[in-house]
Design brief:
Elements (H helix, E strand, L loop, with lengths): L10 E8 L5 E6 L4 H13 L2 E6 L3 E5 L1 E6 L2 E6 L6 E6 L2 E7 L3 E2 L5 E4 L4 E7 L6 E8 L3 E7 L4 E7 L5 E7 L6 E7 L7
Parallel strand pairs: 3-7
Antiparallel strand pairs: 1-2, 3-4, 5-6, 6-10, 7-8, 8-12, 9-11, 10-11, 11-16, 12-15, 13-14, 13-16
């Protein structure tokens, strides 16, 4: 049962031996999955949810479900990994990539139509308090990052074509945490 979902590219019948990489090995399935691993790892690295405005087919969500809600859009990621979200809308582009944890299952990522605000939930299997690194790229500007309780976490500067990185505090336990990123009003000189 502990190996359910595992893959091996071969089987060694001898009780002791060496792999073709000169590593010690014992009887059983190889601990490398060979060519199987290429497709499997490629699929994991490619998995993402993409909301796009297509010029022919209109708005479509690859790897998730979407619906209009309160002047914006709600997207529920269903790509199987839930670490990468991208919006390619007529109003702009947004990329959000979690490096460790993932967007919460069955909870929507809510974004304003002009991408000035996004709200989301992050879940983790890690019961210890830690930070989840989020890489963000989108419309240029200064953004306030807040927790679900409204507490300030950080202010980030997003520049065209560059990612900003923010550390999201994940308290102890595995309960999903809420976050929001909101574009701040531009200050005018004068």
């Amino acid at each position: 049962a502990e190996n359910d979902g595992g893959a091996g590219g071969g089987f060694e019948p001898a009780p002791y031996g060496r792999t073709w990489l000169e590593q010690p090995h014992h009887r059983g399935s190889w601990y490398y999955s060979c060519e199987i691993d290429l497709g499997y790892c490629g699929a994991l690295r490619a998995a993402r949810t993409v909301l796009a405005d297509d010029p022919l087919f209109g708005r479509f969500c690859f790897g998730g479900d979407w619906r209009e809600a309160n002047g914006g859009v709600e997207v529920v990621p269903k790509d199987g990994v839930r670490r990468r979200f991208h919006a390619r809308l007529d109003t702009g582009k947004l990329d959000m990539i979690l490096e460790r944890d993932r967007f919460a299952a069955a909870r929507p990522i809510t974004l304003a139509e002009d991408l000035s605000e996004v709200r989301f939930h992050v879940e983790s299997d890690n019961p210890e308090a830690h930070t989840a690194r989020l890489r963000v790229a989108g419309p240029a500007g200064r953004y306030a990052v807040r927790g679900g309780d409204g507490a300030a976490i950080a202010v980030i500067e997003v520049e065209d074509g560059r990612e900003a990185i923010v550390a999201l505090p994940m308290g102890p336990g595995t309960t999903p945490r809420s976050f929001g990123i909101v574009r701040q009003a531009e200050r005018r000189a004068g």
